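Reviewer 2 asked us to include a model.

Predict the structure of this chain.
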Amino acid sequence: MPNYRRWYVPGGTYFFTAVTHRRRRFLTDPIARVCLRNAFQEVRAKHPFRIVAVVLLPDHLHTVWTLPPDDTDYSVRWGRIKEAFTRGYLRAGGTEADRDSNRAGKRERGVWQHRFWEHVVRGEDDLSRCLSYIHYNPVKHGLVRTVAEYPWSSFHKFVALGEYLEDWGNGPTVADIPGAEWE
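Predicted model (structure tokens):
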């Protein structure tokens, strides 16, 4: 069995990727968006964290969070977000993928992949790279031609704050945007 090691930094900023089970494409459906928003709000009320950036794609999401000082427990937050989402999504009529006997035996639903990917953000340059990756991701996956066309991204918040120009990411290749080729 693989030995997964997480790096826990008190009050740290982290880049995460969470993926649907079998890469099913439903996260941008209206029901899923509402359920995900509700799950994040429910968990943040009990276990605060700041969402720095996020992009929601049909089969996965990327996000950057900053935890409160002296807090390292992002794993509990992700577990509870996935649980709350799954409960709300299935109750609202969402469906799950077929479960193998291993998942069924553990009473796990066929909505999310078991784990999530995490990366500790190590300074401003690394944060910039993570933000570029997040915001360019819908273009990279062929969902839109320009970053500004994609509605489920914090890119629009960053434009309003003056961090990006509205045409950021237009025209270049992935290799021309620092961090966009990282996966």
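The beta strands are 13-20, 50-56, 60-66, 112-120. The chain has two domains: 7-121, 123-183. We have added this to the supplementary material.
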